[in-house]
TrEMBL record:
Transmembrane segment boundaries: 38-60, 81-107, 127-145, 157-177, 197-220, 232-257, 285-315, 336-357, 363-383, 395-418, 424-441
Compartment list: Membrane
Protein name listed in UniProt: Amino acid permease
Positions in coiled-coil regions: none
UniProtKB keywords: Membrane, Transmembrane, Transmembrane helix
InterPro entries: AA/rel_permease1, AminoAcid_Transporter
Main localization of the protein described in the UniProt heading: membrane
Keyword Membrane belongs to the record: yes
Length: 445
């Protein structure tokens, strides 16, 4: 049986972690978070808290990734811990909503950033955004079909470009005439859109977690990483830490330049991106054009990384006989899971046309945390049941780190079911649609 070639080094893996995470959340989510909380310190606290929790999840995930460095990431881990059916539910959920909706949402923000320069009416802009997003997904799917080395090299180049652009944005922001340290401390005068503080923090954290979505992607390409037992854990920890620093600096700039009330008002303008308005205030039209280009680069890059890594889940499922058989095909010339890439792309385009950006992201964050908690719990289960298994990397702070992360995931899932039942139940329903397929495919194997 053909296998995927190992070509990804440690540096490339770290950059893929960064590129898989940094997409649209850091530029767009500060506005709805400001509207929910009405406090700059709470907004920054949510970004820090979400980063620490995501890092705990990444470190827990790293132990599993070191033990089972195969294509498919959590799909493979869940087979070892919970059995084939639970692993299938994760894989189908990834196809139905979690990974494909991530791709759709990132591509959608790419379209949002590009359309304003086209001078279209509001009605035409909505269609244009979706058309551009669809074209981006299909174009990047073709690039990834052509080979992992080229797609990874593109991602690496764009990530370096993003680092430089972020540094310029920080310089523009700190030199802004409207900047004031008091903006970082003083609560807003407008009433928070959510009078229940716990509920407000929960909803704001969902926005922040969307910004960190993607930290686990590197595990999906474990079969293509050199020395994966060492490389994947290091890439997860270092890459997530780098993103935490970038996000905290960017959100500090937003809150330094504009008071919390102005940011909250932007949440009522769905076609406005908060970061663009902040830098427009700080650096005029040149600054706005520059950050729009930065958002284009990051969303393009993150969409590319998501397409590259997520398709390996569906390839692994097909290889096990619980997905469309053709998705297990490896292209003879390009050595890529070519059919899996295009199946993923077609469904992602369908999701682009199905709903709004925030509905997509809230739906996928809920579904994702169902399984993130299961990974951390799996670390605890395997330590108890199979202490003899080799563990090239052991999670720091065991058992506290994976246990607290699993408990947090359970709490977040419960609160989302209560506060956003439509998005939560839609995500569950999409995952449940896979059950008939599972029994059909199992009978054929």
């Amino acid at each position: 049986m053909m296998k995927l070639a190992r070509t990804i080094t440690l540096r490339s893996a770290i950059l893929l972690v960064v590129s898989g995470i940094v997409g649209s959340g850091a530029f767009k989510k500060v506005a709805p978070m400001a509207a929910e909380l009405g406090s700059p310190l709470l907004v920054l606290g949510c970004w820090v808290g979400a980063g620490i929790i995501s890092l705990a999840g990444a470190l827990s995930n790293a132990e599993m990734a070191g033990m089972f460095p195969e294509s498919g990431g959590e799909y493979v881990y869940y087979q070892k811990v919970y059995g084939r059916f639970f692993a299938f539910l994760y894989g189908w959920g990834s196809f139905a909503v979690m990974k494909t909706a991530t791709i759709a949402a990132l591509a959608y923000v790419f379209g949002q950033s590009l359309v304003p320069v086209m001078g279209l009416s509001d009605e035409s802009a909505g269609w244009a955004i979706k058309a551009i997003a669809s074209g981006l997904i299909l174009g990047l799917s073709w690039i990834n079909y052509r080979g992992v080395s080229f797609a990874e090299g593109l991602s690496r180049t764009l990530t370096y470009l993003m680092f430089g652009a972020v540094a310029v944005i920080l310089l523009i922001g700190f030199r802004a005439q409207t900047g004031d340290v008091a903006h970082l401390i003083q609560p807003g005068h407008l009433t928070s859109s959510n009078p229940d503080l716990l509920n407000a923090i929960t909803l704001a954290m969902l926005g922040a977690f969307w910004g960190y979505e993607g930290w686990n992607y590197i595990g999906f390409i474990g079969e293509e990483v050199k020395n994966p037992q060492r490389t994947i854990p290091l890439a997860l920890g270092i890459g997530t830490g780098i993103v935490m620093g970038i996000y905290l600096l960017l959100n500090t700039i937003y809150l330094y330049v504009l008071p919390i009330d102005r940011l909250a008002q932007l949440a009522q303008l769905p076609n406005k991106i908060a970061a663009v308005e902040v830098v427009r205030q700080a650096g005029g039209w040149v600054g706005a054009a520059f950050i729009s280009c930065l958002i284009l680069v990051t969303t393009f890059n993150s969409t590319n990384a998501s397409i590259l890594m997520s398709a390996r889940i569906f390839y692994a499922m097909a290889r096990d006989g619980v997905f469309f058989r053709s998705a297990a095909r490896i292209h003879d010339q390009y050595q890529t899971p070519s059919v899996a890439i295009f199946l993923q792309g077609i469904w992602s385009v369908a999701l682009v046309w199905s709903g709004t950006f925030d509905q997509l992201t809230d739906m996928l964050i809920f579904a994702s945390f169902l399984f993130y908690g299961s990974t951390a719990l799996g670390v605890l289960i395997l330590r108890r049941k199979h202490p003899e298994l080799p563990r090239p990397y052991r999670v720091v702070g065991y058992p506290v780190v994976p246990a607290l992360f699993a408990l947090f995931c359970a709490g977040l899932v419960s609160l989302t079911l209560i506060n956003q039942p439509r998005e939560a139940l839609t995500g569950l329903a999409l995952m449940a649609t896979g059950v008939p397929f599972y029994w059909f495919w199992r009978q054929r194997t």
